[in-house]
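queue> holo job accepted (zinc ion)
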Amino acid sequence: MELFVGVGSSRVRDLFEQAKKQAPCIVFIDELDAIGKSRSSGGFYGGNDEREQTLNQLLAEMDGFSAEDATVIVLAATNRPEVLDPALLRPGRFDRQVLVDRPDLSGREAILKIHARKVKLGEDVKLAAIATRTPGFAGADLANLVNEAALLAARNQRSDVAQEDFAEAIERVVAGLEKKSRVLNDKEKKIVAYHEVGHALVGSLMTGSGRVEKISIVPRGMAALGYTLQLPTEDRFLMDEAELRGQIATLLGGRSAEEIVFNSITTGAANDLQRATDLAERMVTTYGMSKILGPLAYQQGQQPMFLGDGMPNPRRMMSEETAQAIDREVKEIVETAHQQALDTLKLNRDLLEAIATQLLETEVIEGEKLHSLLSQVQAVNNLTVSNRPNLNLSGVS
Ligand code: ZN
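queue> job finished
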């Protein structure tokens, strides 16, 4: 972006002209959010014509590719995908998104191996042990760590880097990262581990909450400290009441595990509660699943096209009495699901402990290993054991 309006967009034009001449080639834009920020969010400072024009030019160029230009590939990176202008993500533009997560234990070891090539390692250095001690470190942090360790070795007049240099370097780097609050302390890590296993255990039993594919306590950004990934086994367009109730219980599984194990509740479940409450509210006010309130729509206007999409619409005009009845029904649904989650976790307490301990060690459990652990979950009497799929692609966090 430039001071004078129009310079940025002419640069974009030049860039794509060059790219087409050089084809086949790759255009890579780093920190895309600098120009690709949502146009509506720019209004705070009275709009920014230069940025908007630059972005418009980029959009126009990306639309302008014809079949013979297909050998120009446009790639971009951002740490803030949520602020990007939606127009950038439409088909034909940046239509494929690849999430590059922070590395897990084995990932960190592999990254350390690469950076350690550049330094002379002492006999006693165990990269696996270093990887264990660096949860939450991104690739750049690990590169920095190797660098720090090498500096420490040089300062101590040694020609190779020893394990103790790494130990000291970890402390230095962690201190830096803690300021950015990206490293969980041991207590927090433990809470997150039990929380995620809680989701997974309850989810593995509930009708309609999908097959649990992965649990992770590798932090992803500021919002999610860990996550449980559930995948549907087929496309679903309809869900029944039992499935929705199962999904709500799964959402509450994380918090329920915290209650049982630590006898206290943290702030980590806020998003789970929001989603559980939204679902319960929709069951009552939109899908007519409450016997007391009957098959009436208590919400206004259009519903989103996909289940589980967007927020509930505003309620219709209604009597105070009806509003109270709705609130009672929503509460009843959520509390029943909460009790189901608690009962399930209490019954499977040993398994909860075992999986959480393992998760704390490896940070990620997935695939066959996870399936075989979860196949040991016992159902509380009146629950149906099922792996019915759902539409919940995003999983719970
Ligand atoms: Zn959760």
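queue> Residues 148 and 172 are 8 Å apart (CA to CA).
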